[in-house]
Fold each of these.
Amino acid sequence: MAYDAPVSELVFALEAHAGISKLEGLADFAAYDPDLVVPILEEAAKLARDVLAPLNPVGDRHGAVLTDDGVVAPPGFADAYTAFREGGWMGLSVPEEWGGQGLPKVLALAVMEMFHGANMAFGLCPMLSFGAIEALLAHGTPEQQAAYLPKLVSGEWTGTMNLTEPQAGSDVGALKTRAVPLDDGSYAISGQKIYITWGDHEMAENIIHLVLARLPDAPAGSRGISLFLVPKFIPQADGTPGARNGVRCIGLEKKMGIHGSPTCVMEYTDAKGWLIGEVNKGLACMFTMMNSARLNVGLEGVAVGEAAYQTAFAYAQERKQGRVESVTGPAPILHHADVRRTLTTMRARVAAARAICYACAVAADLSHAAPDAETRAAARVREDLLTPIAKAWSTDMGVDVASLGVQVHGGMGFMNETLAAQLYRDARIAPIYEGTNGIQAIDLVGRKLAGTKGASMRAMITEIEETVREARATNDPQLVQIADRLKAAAAALTEASDWMVRTLPDEPEKALAGATEYLALSGDVIGGHFLARGAIAARALDPAQRARQLALAGYFAETALAAAPGRVPAITEGGARFIEGSEALFGV
Amino acid sequence: MAYDAPVSELVFALEAHAGISKLEGLADFAAYDPDLVVPILEEAAKLARDVLAPLNPVGDRHGAVLTDDGVVAPPGFADAYTAFREGGWMGLSVPEEWGGQGLPKVLALAVMEMFHGANMAFGLCPMLSFGAIEALLAHGTPEQQAAYLPKLVSGEWTGTMNLTEPQAGSDVGALKTRAVPLDDGSYAISGQKIYITWGDHEMAENIIHLVLARLPDAPAGSRGISLFLVPKFIPQADGTPGARNGVRCIGLEKKMGIHGSPTCVMEYTDAKGWLIGEVNKGLACMFTMMNSARLNVGLEGVAVGEAAYQTAFAYAQERKQGRVESVTGPAPILHHADVRRTLTTMRARVAAARAICYACAVAADLSHAAPDAETRAAARVREDLLTPIAKAWSTDMGVDVASLGVQVHGGMGFMNETLAAQLYRDARIAPIYEGTNGIQAIDLVGRKLAGTKGASMRAMITEIEETVREARATNDPQLVQIADRLKAAAAALTEASDWMVRTLPDEPEKALAGATEYLALSGDVIGGHFLARGAIAARALDPAQRARQLALAGYFAETALAAAPGRVPAITEGGARFIEGSEALFGV
């Protein structure tokens, strides 16, 4: 079966996990009416189900093609993009002055989750446009904003991010693309960029490349990088696309997944570009896009995980093997306990990741839109903390859950053209791009945790302790058991956090050796916390929803949360083992 | 880089983990000389490295092709098979009376690990021949053995296993292929079988299919299944292949991985076949092949994991990104702690899985060859216990480790034709075939654990406690810490085992809901135990080996073993959560 967005679960996550109600009545979101949430999501769900999902296997089989006239998207993608554009989806969370709808970012992300779930290869195109919009909103001059934002927000034009070069991946500072100042205030950009998602295509009339490059006299490393806007067609005085610029796609990568999304090698030959933000501050500008993109990539993990769950659940209902007491004749494999365990694992982990991502998005909204500076600052700390967890934990989950989805399908899951197999291949990119998950872990322990002397995580743990109290106060035995697991898990996270803050300054290698395990533990505990909060909130809902949320939170508590205390040694002791044995193991 | 077998690590695993010395001096292994182990493995390593590994990407890109004359293997495979055959590798562990070398099975498995590591798609062909040989050795009539064994053992002919039909996968009892008795004592076999690995090819002059089918008057279900031998060409009186039989490949599956291995849809139309073993006892006969095949598939997980580790390690030495104190200029990513953590995880888990598989193989050897009945019986219990763990734990590990290998490669790992990506795709089949890992978990808790009232696992835990004592007796602080972790982990395994034995009779669904988690815990604890034993044994070796084994055992202890106690609730409590919420979650 193809993807069908679980709108009610998204709404539940927005309300019970992420606390979207905090955004009501804020001046920046004057257009936000809680009653519109369901209609908006249902409209997006239609596009996802009816237009994007049927094209997912098409994109996988056909891929994009590089022709003499540039890249051509897979069959049907251009029409789908037109439908997307005409639906006004690109501008959902963009201020109304630029043609957007002025809604909270968290809603735009919930919509993007559906588009990614239906067709991740397609979803990447608007995702990158959104990054370009955010960079221009934050760093563009009024003239740049006027020239580019309306077209990007309407979806008439799309955007890209150009960071990576063959020698400069995680180490962006090693990039070599040159930008030579011209007399008219613009720059001539020359160099080669790789791994450029939707770097070229025929679905929009223009493509706006945001490109990191180096001025001739720039300092070495990451402090000598500037950000440039390089349009495929240079806008004319009337705003319409004019002369072809010196940028083109010279190759497409042959990838394991997301075949529908062209991954381009881009060549810049004296391409005309304009500086965005300040000279040599390009990395900071790019981080505006990156933070948003990282959260969005986290949602790709959620989306692929959800799609994998749906297809596995559908298969488990159809496929009959073996017998069980409650069924006459061969039983659907759904009736076998082990299959339901697998499906529960998938569903609980997807829900936990969704909660983390949405909570991060609400924090991002509040960090801009809250009326008082204190709330904004606290929200910013929370957004910063949750961003690397949202990105890495959710995308690792996406890979694991897609793999479980293959397993539920048995031999059928290994057939290359089943959706389960496609999702397993598609999911694998998300832990890699927009900063590998290892980079996310280093960001979490270095900048987000130690950079606040642990205060960011302490604030989260204070919130978790409040959930523990609330769960206990219900006197529901199952919620009390969840509270016990959550409390012990939070204590483990506190212990690991304190160790990390203490160890990083003096023994950075030892601390960083535990960073990935620390991020994994953080995601488990915070995810379990949100699910527990959901189970409490669901007490006010119908019995089925109540039972569902309790089962998911309870299962997660007995698996991930119960395991949390035992995982602290991996963080605090594991690193020392291979650092001491490094010479014998690796010769370094 | 291509696969290069780590012979010294295999030898270490054979000696220190698996206890191959127990096989010295046994009458069945009169040909076994410990001094021959290294030369044999080195000779096999050459074939793996020089012949099979270079063909691995060829097989992936070209795949096998179905022509009017049958299936044609990928370019180079037929020559490689000839080299394999001429090397005498097929008969390594077959009794000398059938043309084999009479060596322990564990050695044949170590050799197969190398062939799988170099080229898993290729390795499947001899693996299936081996299964056919074992079935004939155990259940064939003297005439059948004389007619088929010499040709199979020499590798002139290959073998297949034909179980699955579209409606009969894990539920083998649902199969419909018919066997009608003929006057000459043979049978006419008709039906369709799917997922038949190396079901047809041109590399050998004949192919011997072992086929499960049903007599006209057979009882329903698995008690009405008989096993038949169906040659592609019917042997003539002089033993050479004669008339073409009524069996052919009518389709090849398009798979996500192991493209070099043809996965055939086989059609039987009144094909001439001969009964193997007794009527309606086919499943028991097939289990002779299955047990061996399951251990062999576990080794595929080890092999793919080892290959993934090697290619990731090589990439981490070459790829330069970022800077570290100890290196001038951009540093190979191997110097980053997080990359070394990933590599250590890969290496430790591969070593643990290899130890489990080899230990299982030594137990299999002892179960036949030990002089006294008591030792044979104990070895049999041990083999039975370890087989599902070897299969499932190792193949899940293979998938995880292949995924980590992709991650170390960054964007390059997502390119479809890198070895890292191929291994990620290839690895995914192993948890599925030869009994899904869910089936293995049910076999472990039902037949192997509860079937012995827990005695099988208690024997293993007694052994683990002995290792704890030995580790403590060294007074090496690191080994003492490993001992502490191991002791707590063994206690957790005991608790989970007792719960399982207690719960299975009265609440089977609840028990089976925890089966997969129980298997995972078992593998972690038993794997950690073998690594600890290795670290103790390595004290007698050179400092580098000593440091290496201590680092691997120590890292595994601080990660998998330390986490073990916290994973018991997933087994004992997790199931109840989704069973109670099943109606709300899944509608059943």
Amino acid sequence: MTPPLRACLAPGSIVVIGASENPDKIGGRPLAYLAKFGYRGRVYAVNPKRSETQGFPTFPSIDALPEAPEAAIVAVPGAAAVDAVTQLAAAGVKACVVMSSGFGETASPEGIAGEVRMREVARAAGMRVVGPNSQGLANFGNGAVLSFSSMFIEVPPMDGPVGVVSQSGAMSVVPYCMLRRRGIGVRYAHATGNDCDITVGELAGAVAEDPDLKLLLLYLESIPDPAPLADAARIAHARGLPIVALKSGRTPAGQQAARSHTGALANEDRVVDAFLERNGIWRARDLRELVAATELYLKGWKPAGRRLVAISNSGAVCVMAADAATRAGMPIATLAPGTRAEMAAILPSFATTTNPIDITAALMTNSGLFGAILPAIARDPAADAFVIGIPVAGAAYDVEAFARDTADFAQATGKPVVAAITQDEVAAPFRERGLPVFQTEAEAVSALAQFTAHHERIDAAKPTALVAARAAGPQRMLNEAGSLARLASAGVPVVPHRLCRTADEAAAAFAAIGGPVVVKGCSADVAHKSELGLVRLGLMDTDATRAAFIAMEKTLRDGGFAFDGVLVAAMVRGRRELMVGAHVDPVFGPVVVIGDGGKYVEALPDSQLLLPPFDAADVHRALSRLRVAPLFTGVRGEPPMDLDAFAQAVTAVGALVTAPGSRIASLDVNPVLIGSAGDGCVALDAVVFETTD
Amino acid sequence: MTPPLRACLAPGSIVVIGASENPDKIGGRPLAYLAKFGYRGRVYAVNPKRSETQGFPTFPSIDALPEAPEAAIVAVPGAAAVDAVTQLAAAGVKACVVMSSGFGETASPEGIAGEVRMREVARAAGMRVVGPNSQGLANFGNGAVLSFSSMFIEVPPMDGPVGVVSQSGAMSVVPYCMLRRRGIGVRYAHATGNDCDITVGELAGAVAEDPDLKLLLLYLESIPDPAPLADAARIAHARGLPIVALKSGRTPAGQQAARSHTGALANEDRVVDAFLERNGIWRARDLRELVAATELYLKGWKPAGRRLVAISNSGAVCVMAADAATRAGMPIATLAPGTRAEMAAILPSFATTTNPIDITAALMTNSGLFGAILPAIARDPAADAFVIGIPVAGAAYDVEAFARDTADFAQATGKPVVAAITQDEVAAPFRERGLPVFQTEAEAVSALAQFTAHHERIDAAKPTALVAARAAGPQRMLNEAGSLARLASAGVPVVPHRLCRTADEAAAAFAAIGGPVVVKGCSADVAHKSELGLVRLGLMDTDATRAAFIAMEKTLRDGGFAFDGVLVAAMVRGRRELMVGAHVDPVFGPVVVIGDGGKYVEALPDSQLLLPPFDAADVHRALSRLRVAPLFTGVRGEPPMDLDAFAQAVTAVGALVTAPGSRIASLDVNPVLIGSAGDGCVALDAVVFETTD
């Protein structure tokens, strides 16, 4: 960790610029928090009108400070903030948190210029900046609460194993509030604001080095540079710290809102998905999901699989848990006959000993049933995770025994165990024993499924560096022949074809290729040939080929399009039309898209995104997620398709677009005709765009 | 309402059979509840060992009672319960609630027989039975709490506008618990148990007649007979009472669990979906969704549309609300320039006056901003619903003013307004003013979306009677010619074709139809022709047709299949292969399925279900929900397809399968080739199964 980042997390000394005696002012609240939350470093205030502020020594200017503090808070507005940053940098301060707003988030030229100036003067002096427009940083591990959030007045802090790093001020403290209400301690609640210098990603990387942390939560509205976030993920992955991220602006409406309020550049959402997945980061759908599984993460369980056992005193909960498990992709485990026999010897005859296990309302008259069957289940190797549903209990039940038996069971299995309990009084003894409790079985199963799937994602993560993004610039389209040649030279199989400049050449091509053939007009000016009648399929003889040539040359010349020739290509048989495309994302670099192909790829999209570098196994995984995936293995007696050949073609495309010096701006190969296993695949048509500068 | 149902809801007198002095016993708790919750009718107990039970007069036998009570509770086990029901029926009791278990839910022959016997003796005498295995009925409007649920001890009741009717005991009280915790009053918490006589549907119909009710919640595990539920929906629909139902057993695993614990027959889940939709009932995905939007229903709002406005002091909440709205199918409303100008005059320059409206943290220093902009928004006709997000506030803010301003705003617009507030203290004044509050914007938007979509569903509901289910029986398959003939006679356009018994007839058919033709072997023994080489496409002359005839006759005869002839049919061009199928659901009667057609309808399903009676508009609505729907209007310059012709064909199929005396057990018409608008559609292949008895 660099000294400036250390100064953000654990400064030895802090100065507040624009300090106020009023703890409800932005320049006053951090002082109050530093006093209240036990910060033990040196604290200074700067205010030309005071000699003491909230008990802290106060100086008229930064020059007058007795030392260069490690960290500074800037709480003065506009130009004064830029001046303060300049002086702090000159004084040798390591990091400063600029709370002042009115900069980049306003999208005004002066605001943006002020923000750029702060970064530049800071960087030139080796100082780093959090903000501007930052609500501040809060570390409850050491009391370094450089924040003006009112949330820490409303909801008392408690140090703990969770860290929150957020661009948004509100989203740094709302997860804090939700977790604190559940009794969970939160060490960090950091808001980075406009991210003009230190970004969420970079700060997350510093936080991830804290060995006490067991869960890191992120809120992001835009990812202008994925590298620091990937670094943070690598650090977290190396030490087994799970990261859950809420990246908002998923939808066009959300991106529009993000643009309005921060001027942030929108990221292509499924590239974000792929990036987070590759780095082992779970992407929460919303705020609820961001914090839903926290208790499970804090237990430190390592789920071995997804097979679920559900146990309840309500048959309805059993049914609903099974529905929820199916929905969440968790199979209901099949218990061994011996386990069932052991349970049958204990439970009443009308109970169910298949999983889900319905103890029935008999639990009301015999609270021991629960503890009696759990050991049998614990010994069964068929299950990976458990949900205990007790929708109704109370005074008539020995709830303490249920909680104790469940805790013993969790201890004995070492596997994830969660409870679904609606009544607070029944939930309390479970919580006291450290068992995660949810109100409903669906929420319990869904948290368990997230936790399990996240661990699978962590195990499969490849926190490798992305291929760098390239600057956008002027582009030119290659014609079909040129596009196919580019692909062929990269190792992608393309349809046998000849580019013909005369009708005689076309006739000769027919003779050489053998009928039937496809004839297509070739022009770097025409991307959509069919609409102009520039595609003729299934021509059976020389005359037809010659006639097609003549017609297409006329069409192109009459239309004022470049006439690059006419392509005569073999008619190839195959099983399914797929597609592979690629483009260069301005933030994440080259990306490759594969999917079902043909005429309707835009109208009926079925595609998956691959982030280079990737290998054939990644392509196979992406293929298995397509809607058309069931066809690949062969249905209705058909043989499987040649996915290996397709995967090889896709990795060739990946290599082509990521090669050093590659000028490929985008490409679209559609269709790629795939044959049965062993028959390969072949690109029938392609359009490549290259940058020209 | 019949007298027995009135006796369930508002009995003038009640007897408990198997009464106990111990209020924690099944036979004791109802007596305690009747005393505690203010029941004002006459209460008797039957127990041969006592003369008084919990203060209520107690008699040795049913015979000895001074009158025939209107309602009875049976809390004695096994055969004694059947005896009690027999005697109660003989005594003239109107309705009895059998709490005893060990009957149909055990799936044992004796259990099932006992249950059947109870129903029979009751019905013969005009008495009706709730249960057996029922946790009981609870009416907090009049204190008629004939229930042994412990929940009413744990969570004190309060009468209110919500009713819960559930097969499961737990699911009758868990929604109660969740609502009571939110301060909402619940009048009914009824559990019907095994539904041997009075079902959830029938009881729901009785409850729906209560004019005080504003929301009816149902939990169902199986629907053995949809008619009473449809009746309940009709009653509720007529008086504007919304019904939300949780029907579990959606997935194979859930259905398996339901079978294990109640022996219930599984319903085909998407038929349930269609049935509930047609009847205006919202289907909740899980327990959380069952109760999530309750506060909105209780407000009695009538949403006019889906256009949403989001307002927050956090830009992040604005972004997340926009994402959530898009996900939930609510467009972000475009506010009028005048509205924006009014807001711009009030809000700071860095605030956002496009929707979502970001007031920014400036709200902290000026609590009046909120109330200042709301009137402008209220005057804008562009919005149908509102979400107010205040993720962070507290002592520094005038939270009372926010709540008051929001309540005034809701009053002024008369439109749905919900708040998303994480901090309890901030939420409290909103709740006090009757505003629905959710913890997160995603939950707020999702409840609003459900509420809005449910009102659309209610407006579109057609609570018409279903076509009766028919008994399953032996079936026979018609060959292709017979199947096409059946469809043609029903008015479905079929491909021009001839069934030929000789090669000469086939040659003549070619001449008459004109080439190219399709030739297909025809046999009532062969459902899958392609696999046997019994389909030849694109034959261009008489000789090829004749040869195909000879080959197919040989294939069928060699294979030992009936040789019904060879079909020679025209090759028809069209735009897309669709399909229409029908089968007879054992519970819901005939159902029709439409979808994308072709070879892979099972592997890549894209279909929608229609419940007869339906009309062309219903078919169009179903078509619009298909994945392939975007193609229907024409993409990439194509003309639209002839959906009217297809809808007409589907209504013809609907009429065919629902005609009185119809013997159609199932049919599968695939493909139905659809042409461009005006070109019609035509069935190319079909298989019809008929019942033979």
